[in-house]
Amino acid sequence: MKKLTLIICVLALNLSCGSQQKSTTTTTPKPPAVPEIQIPSPTIDAHGNLIGITAKSNFLEAPFNDWFTFNYENYELNTETITTLKPLLKNVTIKAFMGTWCGDSQEQTPVLYKILDATDFQYQNLEMVAVDRTKKTPDNLQEGLNVFRVPTFIFYKNDTEIGRFVEYPRESVEEDILKIVSGEAYKHSYEN
Question: Per the database record, which ranges form the Thioredoxin domain (predicted)?
Fold first, then answer.
């Protein structure tokens, strides 16, 4: 019985990114593209997932555009929070890790982009990294950053981590980000 319980726990941890949700096909128009700095193209693994440094433009291409566009268009921002957040994001850099195979990443990554678009975020201050199911990339972009769940959005000021959003929000994505960048007490979803 102990072995069975252990096997179930190991399988649950290995498959965890959060809940695995099926994407919904939609005919909603693509969100507006934003000018982005030139970055290397991510690779596509044997399972059809993006791996490596990626950008919003990659998510606007099939097959990723189905879930990206649907979740981007259908998320309603709290405009008051966005107004407060906008000046606070000016001196922030973000290193984000997501998996195109992960339901939580498919839900939260478009929301992050919608928030960043609404706050006129400077995209040269964002590094979006798509990881495989082991939460790694071939060139180890995750190394030393303690990325155990995706999505993980790490926020920095002056090259120092000020907080991170992990997998799903405590309140809403924009409220959680506001707490992080304003210096309020914040614990991500897996901190006690």
Answer: 28-186
